[in-house]
Amino acid sequence: MTTANTLEPETLEERPDSGRRTSRGGSWRRALRRDWQLYSLAILPLLFFLIFRYAPMLGNIIAFRKFEPGGNIFGEEWVGLRYVRMFLNDPTFWNVFTNTLVLGGLTLLFCFPLPIVLALLLNEVRNRKMKRFLQSVSYLPHFLSIVVVAGIVMQFLSLDGPVNQILQMAGGEPISFMQRPEWFRTIYVSSEIWQTVGWGTILYLAALTTIDEQLYEAAKIDGASRWRQIWHVTLPGIRPTAVTLLILNIGTFMAVGFEKVLLLYNPLTYPTGDVISTYVYRMGVQSSNMSYAAAIGLFEALIGLTLIISANVISKRTVGTSLW
Amino acid sequence: MTRGYRIFQGFNAVILAVVVVATLYPFVNIIAQSFSDERYILSGQVNLIPKGFNLTTYQIVGSDPMFWINYRNTVVYTVVATLIAMVLTTCYAYVLSKRHLKGRTFLIWIAVFTMFFNGGLIPNYVLVTSLGLKNSIWAIALPNAISVFNLLVMKAFFESLPDELEEAASIDGLNTYGILWRIVLPLSKAVIATMVLFYAVSFWNSWFSAFLYMNETELFPVTVYLRNLIAGATGAEGAGAAVADVTQAAANIKSVTIVLTVLPILAIYPFVQRYFVSGVMLGAVKG
Known about the structure:
The complex is a heterodimer of chains A (324) and B (287).
Chain A: H1 2-41, H2 43-59, E1 65-66, E2 77-78, H3 82-88, H4 91-111, H5 113-123, H6 128-139, H7 146-157, H8 162-169, H9 181-209, H10 213-221, H11 226-251, H12 258-264, H13 270-273, H14 276-286, H15 290-318
Antiparallel strand pairs in A: 1-2
Chain B: H1 3-34, H2 38-42, H3 56-62, H4 65-96, H5 104-116, H6 121-130, H7 138-141, H8 148-160, H9 163-171, H10 176-187, H11 189-205, H12 208-213, H13 222-234, H14 250-286
Helix pairs in contact in B: 1-14, 3-14, 4-8, 4-11, 4-13, 8-11, 8-14, 9-10, 11-14, 13-14
């Protein structure tokens, strides 16, 4: 009885399984024979992903291993959570962690909704030539190098720059903006708005053109005012786009404009300007504490991944839009 | 048209005018400064029109051999990196566009996953260093060879091509490479142009890879040249070595370097803008 009972499920399981395996192997062989030329085109790109994307992911293992410059890129010996404990006890880490949250939060607060507002305003422009001109102008800053943007910002805010000229004309004292920690966040977020908001309207403008004109007609017949039409027709029409972009923005929340911060900050503005990624850069590349920096970097990347996954789950449950 | 709506239209026009001015003012100001006399800049008299018009600063920047070496580097890096990126992206996008291909979903996920999780700065730095790519063009070109967004745009485009053409070509005896080269690519000129622009602009503008992996001034692209110039102003790190002797014209030199760096982008922008827009749409709709 018992032997039969235990044997039976095993044989039942094994048969279809082994059958599937041979057929799977066979179909792979057939696919390879038929499409080997296609697969051969994928070899170089796959090597790229393997070496320059997935190897660094594994390379994060040096967060838990001792690393020596010039040695094995995966480290020499296990040290467990030593570096994790080290950064958790590092007051500078908590400072840059807070700065990252504040700067990321402010960026999200301004750079997510403003493109929607601008797109709605552009959408109300009836003159087509005018509209195209406005779009061209507002997309332009997106195409500039971050170095150029940083250069413009610094020229603008220098002691003899336009902003200080206006301040002096109004009777104020000139301010050395770039050296003042209390100004860093304002400067960063404003330059981010300047560079990203125009380009950010593209997807919303595209979504707006797909809204069915009949919906507006129907709303008008129902006696809806312009405002009610925007509220009941336009906004629901661009909601999927907005949710998708919100998820993506939340995913990059922790990686706040690393390159821009690196260009704009200086030791005087570290108290508000220094973020996780710039701290990682200084610790790792400048001070050669690779393992310590990798531990912090990994921590940041894991938070980012968690954020995007949770944002995706929440939006799937609540509004039914998701990335995957 | 109700009165409220007319008020709104006026209001809207004002806001959009402010947006246009706020976007363009920094550009015009920098261009005006680059042609102006240093005295007027320092006394804050230069706004939209150059004052004390002269080309001296352009001559100063132009006479710095390092500027031209770095400018040429930018051109070389951009061309080579774009070429490599185009070959890899096109090949992979074509493979991914074949719906019948076994293992296609897995191949797509290999690419898409890297959008949400990446190795991070330090492991990348360790890898590139240990591969011996430092101080070479490969440190810039190889680690950024495929942008997953561009890959998805191209894949979406290839998927939209009719299958019949390729089937006919394969009946005529063309193999996969021949079909890609002679049938698919000629049909994809628009998307290829878009992708070349996407990559070329991003390589032209990039500075951090070079900043991270290049130690010698002669290897810098012009963006790093500019970066060293502006970093000197904040006193944060070392100043641009080559122009240290003319610091009295610092503000002017920066403006000129900025203008010369963005000039190619500004020159092509009016003609290529629509390609960018259509490329982003294609990526957004299908990606």
